[in-house]
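To whoever is covering the structure queue this week,

Two jobs came back overnight. Logging them here so there's a record in the thread.

Job A:
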Amino acid sequence: MSSLPLSIAIKYLKGKRSGFLSFVSSAGFVGVALGVAVLILVSSVMNGFEKELRERVLQSIPHASIIGSIGIDQVPQVRNILLENKEIVASSPYIESQGLIGSSESLKGIYIFGVNPDLENEVSIVGKRIIEGSWNSIEEEKYGIVIGDILAYQLGIGIGDMVNVLFPDTTLSLAGILPRTKRFKVTGIFSIGAPEMDQSFAYINITNAQKLLRLDDTVHGVRIRYKDLFQAPQMVHLDTIRVNQALSSYYSSGNWTNNYGTLFKAINMEKFLVFLLLSLVIVIAVFNIVSLSVMTINEKRSQIAILMTIGATPSFVQKIFMYFGSLIGITGTLLGLLIGLVLTYFLGPIIAFIENLLGMRFLEVYFINYFPVDLRVNWILAICLISILLTILASLYPSRLASKINPAEVLRYE
């Protein structure tokens, strides 16, 4: 007897003339499937952007920095004070400047970082993303430089080639303010996968940077890497205070949110808003299920009345239409899950086909040049469970409406 309401619900879902779903029931079925598929696809892409920003871009730069004209002899003291904080993984002195790099083919503006390769390797992943040459070559080669793969391509150069690097110089001469030029040998090429960095970052030895920028025995600051990236903005402020108190100095601080915090917040906000807006697709499908169930009840009123006259209880009738709405939601959710997973898995080739068809690229100016995907099981389960739960809740009103049918009134004129 318990399977009879389910059998009747399945019969109501089928068309009168064929074994296919009727147009009315398929409309609700497709609505749920479409909503679930789109939510899985879009949420996976948005999670992918967040993951790429966190693991590719934010791990390529220091989490925070203590900024100031720090004497090279004071750097060990600053590092020792910082390492008293157990949340700090590593620290490294640095010099940062803007400049121009030129070859026989092109001239590009870049950010130049003077670093100690061994110490820098502990606060950034750039040294682990070398695809040609060696990261430590900037220590071994007197004037070696490590650049990104996109920058190397734009300049038309490779390992062993010479480039001219123009540094800003504030020294005033009879001819005015002139930049300083130095020839460097390309000893390493890295590829982070973030165009913004691969085409504009260059690394040289910190001693060479001191000489060329005339900093004597000082550096611009100390980079810091924390265990938790998101604690860096709060912790670096406290760590800077400790350093200033210990050394009677007036250093300031900076962290990754100064350059990338807005972008990270924007991605999280977009992810929430897109998820919220696309959830309306499922909500609309749920309301569609309510209307479909009510239409089915009106169509089957006489059959329901006959069932009740031969002994079907109100709860029995209620179960029929609970199953009716739930079946649409469950099957629609499963189909949407399948479609969403397939589309997400093949998103790369699909986007590439569309880009080739339109002759354009969608992410030319973004921090990555492709659509990343991060399928998270908890997100997918949440989407599917919420979809099924909403369709079950949407079936309550029609099922109660069906259980209140008065057989005498319905069959009076039959």
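Job B:
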Amino acid sequence: MKLIIATIKPFKLEEVREALTSIGVRGMMVTEIKGFGSQSGHTEIYRGAEYAVNFVPKIKLEIVVAASMADQVVETISKTAQTGKIGDGKIFVLDVLQAVRVRTGETDADAL
């Protein structure tokens, strides 16, 4: 099993969710986050005062899938979330050693 962690722009969430659902992803966790990388923030003017926005709003997706599906999920997220502009996000893939469905006690692939 693989854990895929992706950060994407907030306005891309619904489009990415639909694309992942269409390839068979049955669930994901979504968190609103703030961060910076190459984009490293920007300045904005609010009520006449200029201020620095050091952290940019992003969405973090966490998806656990069978190892055989991981490449397809990464490719789908990458293609769907891409705008071609700085700050499109990052994708990380980690190994998952164990999964348990709390309600039924099913483990590993059955718990997904």
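Note for Job B: The two ends are 9 Å apart (CA to CA).

Please reply-all if you pick these up so we don't duplicate work.
Q.
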